[in-house]
Amino acid sequence: MNGRTNSRQMTKCQLMDTINQSSFAVDEMILYLDTHPDDADAMAYFQKQACVRRAAMKEYAARFGPLTVDSVDDTCSDTWEWMKQPWPWEITRKGRC
């Protein structure tokens, strides 16, 4: 992902960086494709970044808990696991990772 080694070797911060970068690229490509719908290179780039984002979100959710409600997998749990993580204002480290 993102020119880095295997995602399983990524730290929490590295996964967040990958998610943020690919999310930005996806959002920008959506805007671009709205006005250039026939740009095959742009569509390929969008699809690649969307795939990177999905994989990073899935890996992050599996290792650290879901970031969004659509990445919640509650089939193996009898509790609301993602609520056990600290709230953003409870994290004191710089960079919040």
Written account of the structure:
It is a single chain. The protein has 97 residues and is mainly α. The protein is 51% helix and 0% strand. The protein has 2 helices and no strands. It has helices at residues 12-35, 40-64. Helix 1 (12-35) packs antiparallel against helix 2 (40-64). The two termini are 19 Å apart. The mean pLDDT is 81.
Note the topology.
Elements: H1 12-35, H2 40-64
Q: What is the H-and-E element order?
A: HH
Q: How many helices does DSSP assign?
A: 2
Helix content: 40-55%
Mean pLDDT score: 81
Give the DSSP E fraction (strand runs of 2 or more residues): under 5%
Key features?
elongated; 51% helix; mainly alpha; 0% strand; 97 residues
Give a short summary of the structure:
By secondary structure, the protein is an all-alpha fold. The protein has helices spanning 12-35, 40-64.
